[in-house]
Specification:
Elements (H helix, E strand, L loop, with lengths): L5 H6 L19 E4 L4 E6 L15 E14 L5 E13 L24 E11 L4 E11 L8 E12 L5 E6 L9 E6 L6 H6 L7 E6 L3 E7 L6 E8 L10 E6 L2 E6 L7 E7 L6 E4 L6 H9 L2 E6 L4 E6 L7 E6 L8 E2 L5 E2 L5 E4 L8 E7 L2 E7 L12 E5 L7 E4 L2 E4 L15 H10 L3 E4 L8 E5 L2 H27 L2 H18 L6 E5 L4 H14 L5 E5 L3 H7 L1 H15 L2 E6 L1 H14 L27 H14 L4 E7 L15 E4 L3 H9 L7 H15 L2
Parallel strand pairs: 30-31, 30-32, 32-33, 33-34
Antiparallel strand pairs: 1-7, 2-6, 3-4, 4-7, 5-6, 8-9, 10-11, 11-14, 12-13, 12-15, 15-16, 17-18, 18-22, 19-20, 19-21, 19-23, 23-24, 25-26, 25-29, 26-27, 28-29
Helix pairs in contact: 7-13, 8-9, 9-11, 12-13
């Protein structure tokens, strides 16, 4: 084959420049393909860019450039993403043909046939971190080419590798005079490309498998490639957000993770992904229909009522979203059935406060959390130490109807057939209650937005009940007067009857009407002694409030606010405040002595605090007895309050100086003296009760 002359060869030189943002150098796996009618070969996969000489005149030109995603594979599932470049070539106007300069034929060019043009293609790449060039030689036939531009064929280079999801900038040009530059930007496919998910190891998402055990849940990360870094995330899924970052665990390859059963909730979700840019993630929420997980969620749910001063509001604290609704209801007394208020329920939305805007406050109002037809949580304003009004009646006026009915026992009874006491003439109170509603003596709890809604009123009934009770008391007093008149006829019989009456009253309830606040430390021996004292004094008529404790009141207020409220109430009412000294209580009391050097209020302490002394010991937020001392010691030192100190003589040898201003008794030996002080009077009928109190205390203390 005859090669073209030097001039023809120079004019046929073609430069193809492809600039890509890739970080590595070429490999022998690069491939080159030409369309039919063109011939090409890869001269070098890594050459110096920008040193190609310019051609002497017109030659081959670039028509268009297109980049396509591709895979470069070393095995069936060991591929890496790349981009391949497709370019279409054409003949520039005035391009010389082989044989046009026949006198300039050299022996070295006699191997190629005439009427062909050949050129050198240069593929180069550049990025912010590296550059790469590839040289290609192309032969193009020019036989029967008419004057002007004519498309010849296409060249495909495969391919330029780059990281998943990175962007490549591609540029192409020739070395002919007046050459045209082509430029294009393309992003390398990420793991959302289906072909990459099958063949690229970084895009193969592991599988999550969950096994439920008796005490824990086993989470298995399966089908993970060994040596690659994975992240396992456990989080609570919420409709209003992801619920924070959750807990993350790092792993290299397959792994097992154990989760305690108490942390398994319906909204717990698992997510695993490969540590690359924008990875695919496998997500699993396996406990959304688990009954045990729902029970654990309800056990961790808290309902709190808020008194905003104008309307009833509440908030729910729960780790997950709750498919539930808030239902306001009416309960006249603690433990009584709660009558749902019609048309006022609303769904639970998020964790923040929710307000029943038009519902006026009343002590008998409660809020229920209902889910699946069950009452899961209920909180009443009475639980927040607000006294209920058991005599108030809840009335309803249905929408578009002026008649009133009384809401009770799950239904609405018309006033025409309603009586307050369940007996008497039906309709007796209808007119009076209608007048109370009309004159504003009843509190309107709910005012509808339109005429079709229901209206609710809370009407006090004590004035009507008081009238009936007055008649009953008048009859009772008249009967008692008749009996006394008959007894006066026999004076001796009357004296005997009065003595028996006094003895019976003294023996049955000598402490009736009295109230005591019992303060003790949170340790077993103190709690047993406190329970024994309360169990012995309550049948005698005394109301005993033990702290720590408090029941639903302390749960709603918090331990320390409830304790301060009870202490203030006892001081105002003149109730007895008994401080029970056990080993832990004695240690807390002696800290007052060592902290200040003198008992507050004692002569050596002075009338005002000495700034040279240390501060009064602060009560720990978790120590209810220390907080009780912080309330009691200043009042006791000032001579106020009705305080009594009782020490467990088996464990406490003496009363600390800070509490010696109050009368002190050793238990159980001085239980009789303590009982007489609580009774406030000498009563021979207390002797059997004193011995019973000693026996009960000895049994509680194990003596």
């Amino acid at each position: 084959m005859e090669r073209p002359g030097p001039a023809t060869h120079t004019l046929g030189l073609l430069l193809l420049v492809v600039a890509v943002a890739t970080g590595g150098h070429g490999t022998p796996r690069d491939t080159l393909a030409c369309s039919q009618g063109l011939a090409c070969r890869l001269l070098d996969a890594d050459v110096l860019c920008g040193t190609e000489p310019a051609g002497p005149g017109p030659g081959l030109a670039l028509v268009w450039l297109r980049l396509e995603p591709a895979l470069r594979c070393a095995g069936p599932a060991a591929c890496s993403p790349c981009l391949q470049a497709r370019l279409r070539l054409a003949v520039e106007p005035g391009a010389p043909r082989d044989g046009d300069n026949a006198g300039d034929v050299s022996p070295s060019t006699t191997t190629l046939p005439p009427h062909n043009v050949s050129g050198l293609l240069l593929l180069s790449s550049h990025s912010y971190a590296s550059s790469r060039c590839v040289a290609v030689e192309v032969w193009a036939p020019l036989t029967s080419v008419p004057p002007g531009r004519r498309r010849l064929g296409s060249v495909r280079f495969r391919c330029f590798e780059a990281p998943l999801g990175s962007e490549l900038h591609v540029t192409a040009h020739t070395n002919a005079r007046g050459r045209r530059w082509l430029s294009q930007k393309q992003r390398v496919p990420d793991c959302s490309w289906p072909d990459a998910q099958v063949a690229v190891p970084q895009c193969q998402v592991p599988r999550l498998q969950v096994s439920l055990g008796p005490e824990a849940v086993l989470v298995e990360v399966q089908a993970a490639a060994v040596g690659l870094n994975y992240t396992l995330r456990l989080y609570h899924n919420h409709s209003h957000g992801a619920g924070g970052s959750g807990r993350t665990v790092m792993a290299s390859g397959p792994m097992n993770y154990s989760l305690p059963l108490e942390e398994v909730l319906p909204c717990l979700c698992l997510q695993v992904w490969l540590e690359i840019q924008d990875p695919l993630r496998a997500t699993l929420c396996p406990f959304s229909h688990d009954a045990a997980a729902w029970e654990r969620l309800w056990a961790q749910t808290r309902l709190v009522l808020h008194d905003t001063g104008q309307a009833l509001a509440c908030s729910i604290s729960a780790p997950c979203d709750l498919p539930a609704e808030l239902v306001p209801c009416w309960s006249p007394a603690p433990g009584a059935p709660c009558q749902a208020l019609p048309d006022l329920q609303q769904p639970v939305t998020g964790q923040g406060p929710q307000e029943f805007r038009a519902l006026q406050l009343h002590p008998n109002l409660c809020v229920q959390v209902r889910s699946g037809g069950q009452v899961r949580r209920m909180q009443c304003l009475q639980d927040r130490a607000l006294p209920g009004r058991g005599d108030d009646l809840l009335l309803m006026a249905p929408g578009g109807n002026a008649s009133l009915c009384a809401l009770e026992r799950g239904g609405c009874t018309p006033l025409a057939s309603f009586t307050a006491t369940g007996s008497g003439r039906p309709g007796l109170l209808e007119q009076q209650l209608q007048e109370d509603v009309a004159t504003g003596q009843c509190l309107q709890l709910w005012r509808p937005d339109n005429s079709s809604g229901v209206a609710l009123w809370a009407c006090p009934m004590h004035k009507y009940l008081r009238t009936r009770w007055a008649l009953a008391w008048m009859g009772l007093l008249l009967g008692a007067a008749c009996i006394l008149l008959l007894l006066l006829l026999k004076k001796e019989d009357l004296k005997g009857w009065l003595k028996s009456l006094r003895a019976g009253y003294g023996n049955e309830a000598p402490l009736r009407g009295r109230r005591m606040l019992l303060l003790h430390a949170a340790e077993p021996v103190a709690e047993r002694a406190a329970c024994a004292l309360a169990a012995a004094l309550r049948p005698l008529g005394m109301t005993v409030v033990a702290a720590p404790g408090g029941g639903t009141g302390a749960a709603a207020w918090g331990t320390l606010p409830w304790l301060h409220a009870q202490h203030r109430r006892a001081l105002r009412a003149g109730d007895t405040i008994l401080i029970l000294l056990s080993p832990a209580a004695e240690a807390a009391a002696r800290r007052w002595d060592t902290a200040d050097g003198a008992v507050p209020g004692s002569p050596e302490a002075g009338s005002t605090p000495d700034p040279r002394h240390g501060p009064v010991p602060a009560a720990s937020p978790c120590d209810a007895f220390a907080a009780a001392l912080s309330c009691a010691v200043p009042v006791l030192a000032a001579g106020g309050g009705r305080y009594v100190v009782a020490r467990l003589e088996a464990t406490v040898a003496a009363v600390p100086p800070v509490l010696r201003a109050a009368p002190a008794f050793a238990l159980p030996s001085q239980a009789g003296r303590l009982l007489r002080v609580l009774a406030g009077r000498r009563n021979p009928g207390l002797r059997p009760l004193e011995e019973a109190l000693r026996r009960r205390l000895r049994g509680a203390l194990g003596e």
